[in-house]
């Protein structure tokens, strides 16, 4: 289940878990469906491509994958599973034929966490699925505690530090630019002073949600950088793309019209500084420093604007 749907005191309720069954034989899908559909939501696909289509609209908690799927289709599917994720992993259990050691090897090589043999024993299937769902659920909870900001529900600084580093290496290696946006709420101290800290917290949550919904690509992410500052990471994005996203964020926050009588803009607004890895790589400054510097320029120029 997606991290955003887990609440802090989520109990171990697996009944809403989604299981994606990928098999080219409808009869095999039917067998698995009959065993699992009473307890879980079962989705089905009869090819790798169809499974990738299903993944566009659904985030399954576990995948049961027929080992006979061709290598290429299997790799593409596994790649897609990894990219589709915010955090954590979707466990893949392979379905293999009994007494076929090479199929066991294919399972581990394919990134499987476990396998189950055909003909399928209903009790074994149910128990395997339950164990792996439980493990996944607990891992998700732990990841959430470690990497999600408690107030706003977006990623925290720890997540940013780890992932920025990875993204930086990837960007430089592939000469594929990554953009950084530093976002700071304008006159927020005055907002707290005038409306109370509780209203301030509510506004912070709304701003975080608006930023998150302005990010349209699956690999884009937002983190709470500190108090009322957010940082957005946009992989495969140059400075022009970054400016488009930044403007979209700035406008959506202004258009929300959260009244702020102490601001000359009358509503809660943000200032944004943008930079990219490849543009700042030859200079002495890190793109985060650059974005921060442009953020400062945006503030100086009157706030509620984007600078790069
Ligand atoms: P500027 O336009 O220059 O950014 O002014 P500002 O008042 O936003 O900036 P400053 O850095 O002076 O103040 C940031 C304020 O953000 C301080 C604090 O009142 C508020 N803030 C930081 N974290 C939180 C939080 O978690 N909740 C609430 N309600 N307010 C916070
Ligand atoms: Mg098959
Ligand atoms: Mg600030
Ligand atoms: Mg501020």
From TrEMBL:
Q: Which residues form the GGDEF domain?
A: 176-308
InterPro entries in alphabetical order: CheY-like_superfamily (IPR011006), Diguanylate_Cyclase (IPR050469), GGDEF_dom (IPR000160), Nucleotide_cyclase (IPR029787), Rev_trsase/Diguanyl_cyclase (IPR043128), Sig_transdc_resp-reg_receiver (IPR001789)
Which GO molecular function annotations are given, in alphabetical order?
Answer: diguanylate cyclase activity
Sites bearing 4-aspartylphosphate, chain numbering: 66
- Please report the stretch or stretches of sequence annotated as the Response regulatory domain: 18-133
Sorted UniProt keywords? Nucleotidyltransferase, Phosphoprotein, Transferase
Q: Which residues cross the membrane?
A: none
What reactions does this protein catalyze? 2 GTP = 3',3'-c-di-GMP + 2 diphosphate
Top enzyme class, one word, equals transferase
Q: What is its EC number?
A: 2.7.7.65
Q: Which SUPFAM superfamilies match?
A: CheY-like (SSF52172), Nucleotide cyclase (SSF55073)
Q: Any idea what this protein is called?
A: diguanylate cyclase
